[in-house]
Task: inverse folding
């Protein structure tokens, strides 16, 4: 038998490399995972044998992920840089995938023509495109490709028992496991087990005359005949899987993943969350959905029976939370740890040979003749056109998904950030990025500085992170309360992590940074805002690390490449013989079991037709529902929903198009009105949920109550609006609302203020403590401090004054002790403090002792979002004393103080008042600090209120504050002997500078209130200026 | 002496005798040949020992800089140890010890700093002090030789400082290697320049800022365009020049709180930061007749007297018109003190009651002198309502308005 080159395979390779090889340059860097692998590769390129990486989290080990792909990129990076390495590996992955699919298909169908068709179709398969161009899962692709290469070798070993084949199959399994650990484990179950079944079936078939004569008895006989080979293969491959990445397993055992489950779209109910359904079901299956009846029919044929069972399992597991079955099959733990999209990927790959087979039969085989004879030539052509069209549509749709719905923020130029970190020893501290997406990994790869955050959540160890179901701090706003809550802990006590710099690409986080005491440093030329925290000590020069034995390091650094070399040596003969056709090769034995392609089953054709019609109906109905839901003028609810959606995404033109066109509100007037509104709600809020209640509806008029929940970085806001709608020309529109008409007295006015500039180092030197340039810390005085217990949680409250002559940034750190001086908890002041004080200015403060949220009560994580959610620390013992450390640092930033606050009405429950902006800056977020005093004017509690709307210059805005209830409040101690300022005793300082302080000086200016427990309050105001002039 | 002691002594003598006998053959002796006199830092120091053997022994040297073990050059039973420069250039005591088993020798060499000065090391802190003569800054001066050794004690150092017209010159002497001087602030604020000089060499210039002390009581005054309560114009409060008790103008940026108490005891707080001693602060006029008592504080340190301000009613009366089945309530014209329309933004409140229960409170800002409330039928169903309209401190009630 003369063997010729398979033209289809060659075509598939050429097209595949041209198509994917060019497009990866536009897609790979914006995928979810590719840059993470790049970061790992960067690690290996710097320290091939050192598994400890200090750059992410507070250090983690790269032994938590199989190293082959990363090490390959690293090795190639020595030639042309990291990105060269990544793209080269990606192209190798593409080649391996196409050839792998070809060999797998040959194994399944025993037809070179079919395998050729499969190879071409695999190039454009939507699941492969999604995995490569949207998810960027290089190790996963390489893993599954090598596994497909291994399958024929395994078959041959089991069938023929030639030692050569066990060597080749094990060598390929070794490569698979060093590139991706999950693939061989599940591949064992879903690919190799059915393959074993198929081998036994083939063996049984050889004993009898036809496939029909294969009975269970014959099958069992064959099974026992092959048992020795199966067991030897099983044991050896298990040894390979464990041995090749032994350090990985040791590490998994020593550092079990304590991470609480992180929600993943593949676990959603795809019918409820249609976006997840699209990404994790519709796209990977693509056109295969139409062929499902054929695929199941073929895989449930006797020879492939076990593949049929396997693909059924994969199909069901891939549906995630749509049905309860995956949860039952996998168990609660595995269900919450695994991302289930991989099952769909494997199922779609397993379907590819049959897709190729179908295409082959449809284009040139029995199916063509069957259709042509039954429905005519035209029908065959039309249906062919439709199928091809659908296939191409899915390919292009998947490819363009990343373009139309970018999963990442726009590409950020990293050079200015890298330069910033290198300058002036900024890399002596840790940094954090906000709103960078997966690009943070690329930044980490380029700089030596260390980040608190990271992008490989399985490896992290800080309980602050592992107890939260968040991927990264960096995108915490998408993760609701858990996200922002976790972020707040890092922002409030940055000293603990030596975190000094934050690069913010998302202004959403600005308020939380400000109110946690951070200040803007400057905007880099790439538009990234740098935030800085004062009083953070630099990293120590020796950082803790978990060291592992040297043999593990050597194993980890050498085995992966060794597996590749061994696999290459063992398989090179086959490769050369096959590609160069140097000598006549015998066909492998599996080629003897070809399917009969002469008679296409009529019933399968009929079922396929019915199934296609059902699918078409579902699709059309889905599109119709989609239209109804998205046609904004269709109903009053739609109009309101679309209007709020447009506001949320700042699409003001669209919002205006939903406003009554007869109301004479021009777009320019509307835009102007929008542009002058600022504040927490309009500039920093994300719409979380919207509910509408129809109060009344007639044919042309409707009145709706709109209840909206907004997530802001500071707290959750619930708002109730009443909207009136009108129907004009069969379309619903919203009636516009009145805008405030307040006219300020001055058109132009002036204001003087004192500006400060801190030179930093006057001499350009890297000397760390150049004596003359050490700026004196401003002197603060703690006027009052006491430990109180209120509603079950402890807090230190008090007042602090800047008694120096320069403005000061204030950091307050409180520690609680019990009677035996055992430290119980420590935390910093968060919102309840004006972090920037002018000379002689006073601020009330409160330090809450927050625990690591939900660390104890994992199951009670609330489903709803509340960034202001507060988890009091669980103390084992009763705190009786406290230590309070105040640190002042000169700061000229954020010193806007021209906001007045006045009380207009005192109710039993509410306090009404106004805030007035008399300065020249627009106040974006005003915050009130309200201190409660007892009858004898002793401080009892400090509360706060964020106002939702901003305050424009020379304007007044009213507020309504709900007084705290009269829950019991206990002052545990007011012993101030352990209060320190800049490390010196508070009392000594105060005696030296203000020896004759007027005690209770302005206590007569406290506001009286009518409250059962408290007689007086003091209101202070703290303002966040979003856009300083 | 007890028997036990004798017993132990005898054994000890026997053991010593035995060991001496044993070692007798190989006994080595060493003696110091060099005359040990004080040397100057940087001089070459060689220690010579004579010995009866050419055996290798080591010399242990230790000074403030660190410790070394030295090996000798041996010539004709003379051991020569060259003390390395890194040790020899440090002034202070250099201890040495010859490490031998038989007769350990030890001694010390006094290394004196060079008599000539090369640099003056000086430190000053804190960099800012308070005016008044009680706060001070300390200058520490360390004259050193060219090997960075502090010069010998009692080296004369001149400390000079200049403040305004004063220029002072103080003589101090080093002790334990350094000299120091406390420089006290003067009553005026300003900047003291400080330098030092020793053995003809001058240090660099230092400066210390003398900051004003804490402020003393002051007075305030108010400025306004007119005295009508129109809720629109701005009243500005201003302090007198804030000074400390030495008559220094306090630092710029000093924070002053102004507390305003109205007739009802409600407080308003507005604040200002001082420039050239004057802190200014602004507030909007009230919207109704009122009397304000204003007092300013620098908390815990100083305060002003209180002043009172009277605001006259600007809007004397307004009309209310109901239309469209009473569902539209028109308030206005709202006229100010010259019968002009009040500037936009006066807040008018409408409280809606049914049977004395408040069910809603609407508030709206005036535009062109009018405010129009629209009460829609979905929110306010057909029943009887009482309305109370409040603005500019005037309240008007309309009872039993029926909606259909």
Result:
């Amino acid at each position: 038998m003369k063997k010729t080159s398979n033209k289809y395979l060659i075509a598939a390779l050429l097209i595949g490399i041209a198509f994917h090889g060019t497009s990866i340059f536009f897609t790979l860097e914006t995928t979810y995972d590719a840059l993470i692998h790049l970061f790992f590769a960067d690690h290996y390129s710097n320290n091939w044998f050192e598994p400890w990486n200090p750059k992410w989290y507070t250090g983690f080990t790269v032994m938590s992920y199989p190293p082959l792909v990363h090490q390959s990129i690293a090795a190639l990076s020595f030639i042309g840089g990291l990105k060269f390495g990544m793209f080269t590996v990606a192209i190798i992955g593409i080649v391996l995938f196409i050839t792998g699919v070809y060999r797998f298909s040959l194994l399944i169908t025993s037809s070179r023509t079919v395998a050729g068709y499969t190879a071409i179709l695999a190039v454009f398969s939507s699941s492969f495109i999604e995995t490569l161009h949207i998810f960027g899962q290089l190790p996963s692709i390489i893993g599954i490709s090598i596994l497909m290469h291994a399958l024929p070798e395994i078959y041959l070993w089991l069938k023929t028992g030639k030692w050569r084949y066990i060597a080749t199959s094990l060598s390929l399994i070794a490569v698979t496991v060093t590139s991706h650990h999950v693939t061989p484990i599940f591949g064992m179950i879903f690919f190799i087990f059915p393959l074993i079944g198929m081998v036994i079936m083939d063996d049984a078939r050889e004993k009898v005359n036809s496939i029909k004569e294969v009975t269970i008895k014959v099958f069992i006989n064959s099974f026992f005949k092959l048992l020795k080979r199966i067991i030897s293969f099983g044991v050896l491959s298990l040894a390979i899987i464990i041995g090749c990445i032994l350090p990985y397993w040791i590490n998994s055992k020593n550092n079990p993943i304590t991470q609480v489950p992180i929600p993943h779209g593949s676990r959603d109910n795809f019918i409820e969350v249609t976006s997840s359904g699209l990404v994790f079901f519709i796209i990977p299956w693509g056109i295969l959905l139409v062929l499902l009846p054929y695929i199941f029919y073929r895989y449930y044929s006797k020879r492939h029976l076990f593949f049929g069972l396997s693909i059924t399992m994969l199909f069901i597991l891939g549906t995630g939370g749509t049905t309860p079955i995956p949860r039952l099959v996998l168990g609660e733990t595995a269900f919450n740890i695994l991302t289930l999209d991989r099952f769909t990927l494997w199922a779609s790959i397993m379907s590819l040979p049959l897709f190729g087979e179908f295409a082959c039969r449809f284009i040139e085989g029995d199916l063509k003749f069957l259709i042509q004879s039954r429905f005519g030539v035209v029908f065959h052509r039309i249906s062919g056109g439709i199928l091809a069209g659908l296939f191409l549509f899915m390919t292009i749709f998947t490819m363009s998904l990343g373009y139309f719905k970018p999963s990442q923020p726009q590409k950020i130029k990293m050079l200015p950030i890298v330069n910033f970190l290198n300058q002036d020893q900024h890399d002596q501290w840790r940094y954090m990025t906000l709103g960078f997406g997966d690009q943070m990994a690329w930044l980490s790869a380029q700089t030596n500085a260390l980040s608190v955050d990271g992008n490989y959540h399985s490896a992290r160890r800080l309980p602050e992170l592992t107890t939260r179901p968040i991927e990264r701090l960096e995108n915490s706003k998408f993760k609701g309360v858990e996200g922002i809550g976790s972020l707040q802990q890092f922002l409030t006590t940055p000293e603990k992590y030596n975190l000094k710099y934050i690069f913010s690409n998302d202004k959403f986080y600005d308020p939380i940074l400000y109110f946690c005491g951070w200040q803007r440093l400057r905007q880099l030329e790439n538009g990234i805002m740098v935030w800085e925290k004062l009083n953070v000590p630099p990293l120590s020069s020796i950082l803790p690390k978990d060291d592992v034995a040297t043999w593990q390091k050597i194993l980890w650094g050498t085995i992966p490449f060794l597996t590749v070399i061994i696999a290459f040596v063992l398989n090179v003969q086959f490769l050369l013989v096959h590609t160069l056709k140097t000598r006549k090769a015998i066909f492998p034995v599996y080629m003897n079991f070809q399917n009969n392609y002469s008679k296409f089953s009529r019933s399968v054709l009929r079922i396929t037709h019915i199934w296609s019609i059902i699918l078409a109906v579902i699709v059309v109905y889905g599109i119709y529902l989609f239209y109804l839901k998205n046609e904004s003028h269709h109903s009053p609810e739609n109009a309101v929903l679309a209007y709020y959606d447009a506001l949320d995404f700042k699409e003001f033109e669209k919002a205006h198009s939903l406003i009554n066109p007869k109301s004479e509100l021009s777009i320019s007037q509307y835009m102007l009105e929008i542009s002058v509104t600022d504040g927490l709600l309009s500039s920093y809020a994300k719409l979380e949920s919207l509910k509408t209640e129809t109060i009344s509806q007639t044919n042309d008029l409707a009145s709706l109550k709109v209840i909206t929940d907004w997530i802001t970085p500071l707290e959750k806001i619930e708002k109730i609006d009443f909207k009136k709608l009108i129907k004009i020309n069969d379309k619903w529109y919203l009636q516009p609302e009145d805008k405030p008409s307040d006219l300020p007295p001055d058109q132009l006015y002036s204001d003087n203020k004192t500006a400060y500039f801190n030179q930093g180092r006057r001499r350009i030197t890297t000397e760390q403590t150049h004596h003359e340039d050490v700026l004196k810390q401003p002197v603060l005085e703690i006027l009052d401090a006491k430990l109180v217990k209120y509603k079950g949680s402890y807090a230190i409250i008090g007042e602090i004054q800047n008694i120096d002559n320069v403005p000061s940034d204030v950091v307050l750190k409180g520690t609680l002790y019990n009677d035996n001086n055992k430290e119980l908890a420590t935390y910093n002041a968060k919102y309840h403090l004006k972090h920037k004080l002018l000379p002689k200015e006073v601020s009330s403060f409160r330090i809450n002792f927050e625990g690591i949220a939900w660390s104890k009560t994992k199951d009670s994580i609330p489903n709803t979002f509340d960034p202001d959610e507060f988890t009091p620390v669980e103390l084992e013992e009763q705190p009786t004393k406290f230590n309070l450390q105040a640190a002042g640092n000169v700061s000229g930033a954020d010193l806007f103080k021209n906001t007045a606050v006045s009380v207009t009405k005192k109710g039993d429950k509410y306090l009404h008042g106004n805030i007035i902006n008399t300065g020249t800056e627009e106040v974006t977020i005003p915050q009130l600090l309200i201190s409660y005093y007892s009858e004898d004017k002793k401080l009892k509690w400090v509360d706060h209120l964020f106002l939702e709307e901003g305050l424009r210059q020379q304007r007044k805005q009213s507020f309504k504050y709900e007084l705290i209830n009269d829950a019991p409040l206990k002052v545990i101690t007011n012993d101030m002997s352990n209060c320190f300022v800049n490390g010196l005793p508070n009392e000594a300082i105060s005696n030296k500078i203000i020896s004759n302080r007027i005690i209770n000086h302005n206590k007569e200016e406290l506001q009286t209130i009518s409250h059962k427990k408290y007689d007086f309050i003091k209101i202070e105001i703290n303002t966040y200026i979003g856009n300083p002039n | 002496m007890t028997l036990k002691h004798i017993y132990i002594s005898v054994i000890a003598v026997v053991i010593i005798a035995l060991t001496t006998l044993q070692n007798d053959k190989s006994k080595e002796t060493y003696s110091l040949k060099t005359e040990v006199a004080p040397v100057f830092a940087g001089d070459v120091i060689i220690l010579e020992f004579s010995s009866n053997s050419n055996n290798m022994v080591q010399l242990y040297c230790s000074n403030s800089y660190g410790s070394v073990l030295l090996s000798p050059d041996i010539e004709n039973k003379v051991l020569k140890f060259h003390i390395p420069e890194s040790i020899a250039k440090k002034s202070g005591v250099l201890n040495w010890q010859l490490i031998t088993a038989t007769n350990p020798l030890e001694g010390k060499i006094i290394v004196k700093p060079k008599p000539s000065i090369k640099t003056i090391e000086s430190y000053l802190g804190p960099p800012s002090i308070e005016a008044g003569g009680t706060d001070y800054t300390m200058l520490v001066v360390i004259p050193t030789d060219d090997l960075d050794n502090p010069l010998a004690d009692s080296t004369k150092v001149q400390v000079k400082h200049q403040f305004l017209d004063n220029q002072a010159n103080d003589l101090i002497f080093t002790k334990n290697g350094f000299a120091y001087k406390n420089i006290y602030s003067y009553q005026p604020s300003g900047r003291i320049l400080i330098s030092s000089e020793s053995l003809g060499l001058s240090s660099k210039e230092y400066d210390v800022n003398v900051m004003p002390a804490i402020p003393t009581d002051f007075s305030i005054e108010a400025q306004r365009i007119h005295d009508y309560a129109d809720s629109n114009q701005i009243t500005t409060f201003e302090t007198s020049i804030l000074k400390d008790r030495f008559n220094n103008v306090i630092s710029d940026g000093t924070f002053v709180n102004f507390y305003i108490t109205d007739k009802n005891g409600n407080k308003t707080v507005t604040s200002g930061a001082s420039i050239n001693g004057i802190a200014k602060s602004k507030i909007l006029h009230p919207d109704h007749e009122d009397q304000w008592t204003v007092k300013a504080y620098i908390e815990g340190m100083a305060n002003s007297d209180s002043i009172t301000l009277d605001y006259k009613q600007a809007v004397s009366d307004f009309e209310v018109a109901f239309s469209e089945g009473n569902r539209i309530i028109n308030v206005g014209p709202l006229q100010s003190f010259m019968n002009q329309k009040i500037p936009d933004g006066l807040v008018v409140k409408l409280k809606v009651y049914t049977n004395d229960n408040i069910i809603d409170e609407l508030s709206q800002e005036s535009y062109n002198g009018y405010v129009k409330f629209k009460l829609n039928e979905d929110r306010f169903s057909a029943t009887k309502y009482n309305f109370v309209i409040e603005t500019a401190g005037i309240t008007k009630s309309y009872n039993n308005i029926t909606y259909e």
Q: What stands out?
A: The radius of gyration of chain B is 45 Å. Chain B has four domains: 3-112, 124-211, 220-313, 320-402. Helices of chain B lie at 3-23, 85-88.
